[in-house]
Amino acid sequence: MTLLLCILIFVLAGLTKGVLGLGLPTVAMSLLALLMTPAEAAALLLIPSLLTNVWQFCAGPSPWPTFTRLLPLQLALVPGTLLSIPLLTGGDGAGLAAALGAVLVAYGLVGWTGWRLPAPGRHEGKVAPLVGFVTGLITGMTGVFVLPAVPYLQSLALDREQLIEALGLTFTVATLALLMGLWWQDALAVERLGASSLLLPALLGMALGQRLRQRLDERLFRRLFFGGLLLLGAYAVLHYLLRLGYLG
Fold it and tell me: Closest Cα partner for 85 from 145, 131, 141?
């Protein structure tokens, strides 16, 4: 019964990622926590999360141009993550993630109004490394790699398939940087990496989500995208409040 529930959870998490381009770890972790410890859930999540991000990037319309355009951002993301990773392994990472969650809620609400960060224009070459480095710092501190990379990528006026592709690339690099940092800090249980056996349900869900995304109009996709960010942020805040016992 537990195995069946895990399969259904990963299909749902993959479906969410296929439609929105993000959210697999959050959806899966929140539901798996009802069945197992966080450490066991993280072990199950590692490989599906990484490989679905790689697939999301490679399945995009123009992977190589996207890679070359966003290379400065990715190169700066890695050292930023490694610099701040001790705060995640030795500090109150849940509290930092909750603070970031509050920012995500605000950004999700603002996004629904149609407001965007100004496009970097001719300053993109200077802004991108800064965005990557700050994203890396936040990734290292919280394990969450959404800000400021997501609003920055959205400001580039990419169409939805290019945005999903760019998110896949950035999340892949951020995940690898996080893994490098955890290994460096001896906080990565390497023996658990082979425990992830639910890749196929996640890939199935993601494939279904991608097909569904093709049928969505731009306006509905935008609402789902920002709604996904809002839910990600709300989950981080509520998880922290529950941890402190403020919500029962």
Answer: 141
Token look-up 């990773």 returns: 85
Q: What are the backbone dihedrals phi and psi of residue 91, each rounded to the nearest 5 degrees, phi first?
A: -120, -165
Which DSSP state fits 36? S
CA distance 188 to 178: 10
For residues 120-133, b (16+ Cβ closer than 10 Å) or e, as one string? beeebeebbbbbbb
Q: Count how many residues are written for the chain.
A: 248
Checking 62-67 for CB contacts under 8 A at 24+ apart, the result is 62/162, 62/165, 63/165, 63/169, 66/162, 66/165, 66/166, 66/169, 67/169
Is the pTM higher than 0.85? The answer reads no
Average pLDDT over residues 121-135: 94
What integer is the mean pLDDT of 161-182?
91
* Phi, psi for residue 144 in degrees, rounded to 5: -110, 125
What number is the average pLDDT over the span 208-223? 81
- What pLDDT does residue 179 have? 83
